[in-house]
Amino acid sequence: MNVKLFPSYGFSANCYALEIGNEAALIDVGEVTPEILEYVSEKGESLKYVLLTHNHFDHIGGVDKVLELSDAKLAIHAEDGKNLTNPSYNLTSRVGLSNPALRVDIMLKDDDEILLGGETIHVIHTPGHTVGGVCYVVGDVIFSGDTL
Question: SS3 for 108?
Answer without folding.
Answer: strand
